[in-house]
Amino acid sequence: MIFVGKERPYYTVNDFYLEKFHDKVYKISLNGDFTCPNRDGTLSKDGCIYCSESGSAEFGGNKLLPLKKQFEEVLKMMQKKWKSGKYIAYFQANTNTYGPLSKLKSLFEEALTLNENIIGLSIATRPDCLNDEIIEYLADLNLRTFLTIEIGLQTIHESTAKLINRGHTLKDFEEAVLKLRKKNIHVVCHIINGLPGESKEMMMDTLNFVNKQDIQGLKIHMLYIIKNTPLERYYLEHPYPILTLSEYTELVAEQIEHLRTDIVLHRLTGDAMKEDLIEPLWSLKKFVVTNEIDKILRKRNTYQGYHYN
């Protein structure tokens, strides 16, 4: 049996970090108090259909605290489980290149000074929020630290993009990736399985499109419905089939089999807070999901790239 990763039949982000930094690497989530053009009225006031009013802020640090304090609080929790390692400062909440360049510089430069073991920055954003001035600054950052830009694609299908109110085009995504890669910046793409109305074939089409892009990492999410979102209202008014655990794990296993072997898998499922989650409840069992995917691949005697052409 061929394994792409050291422990799993695919190229995990832990494998990648160990190869690159020869140490365990942890992401420390920070909140730079950014908003989003899809929420502040520039494009829309509703945000993407699955996004809560706080955006993704529940997964970042406390925006009311200084970055130093945010970092220390998250690090303290992590050190209960892992005593040592290197760190990546992760700006996760909302759109972290949507703002004046002066704000970006202030936050990102400070983040690099928070701890001597910080070896990189990971910045989540939208492809339509990366103008040339920002790209030039990111290129400079990339010369001084290990920089990763995370971009949400979610789907390649225009009908779905309109339904979920994504607010940017496929062309925006392609152009952003090209600009970032011209500066040799590491790009991680996000896709979502289980979007309303999408068949397995449509989800595989999105994966096959990703294979043709010059990306270095991929996050695969399961769409989950959380309280107080447009998606909750849509689901109540237009109930649609939610992928079962079996359907989801079979699908992701097939996506992995078709994925280029050089693409690092950063995530195989999404996280939602238990108190906010409506569906699917099985998504709370993150390790069950990943273990089931591993079982399927081992049972088939397949691995990342097995069917890649």
Structural account:
With 309 residues, the chain is of the alpha/beta class. The protein has a domain at 13-225: Alpha-Beta Barrel (TIM Barrel), CATH 3.20.20.70. The chain contains ten helices and nine strands. The protein has helices spanning 13-21, 67-78, 101-111, 132-144, 158-163, 170-182, 200-211, 230-237, 245-257, 286-300; strands at 25-30, 86-91, 118-125, 146-154, 186-193, 217-222, 225-226, 264-267, 277-279. Strands 1-2-3-4-5-6-8 form a seven-stranded parallel β-sheet, with helices on both faces. The chain has a two-stranded antiparallel sheet with strand order 7-9. The model has no long low-confidence stretch (mean pLDDT 93).
User: Cα-atom Rg, whole angstroms?
Assistant: 19 Å
> Could you give the order of the helices and strands?
HEHEHEHEHHEHEEHHEEH
Task: Name the overall outline.
Answer: globular
Unreliable parts: none
Q: What would CATH call the homologous superfamily of the domain at 13-225?
A: Aldolase class I
- Residue-averaged pLDDT: 93
For the termini, the CA-CA separation is 19 Å
What is the annotated CATH architecture of the domain at 13-225? Alpha-Beta Barrel
Q: Can you count the helices? A: 10
Assign the CATH class of the domain at 13-225: Alpha Beta
Q: Beta-strand percentage?
A: 15-25%
**Largest beta-sheet characterization:** 7 strands, parallel
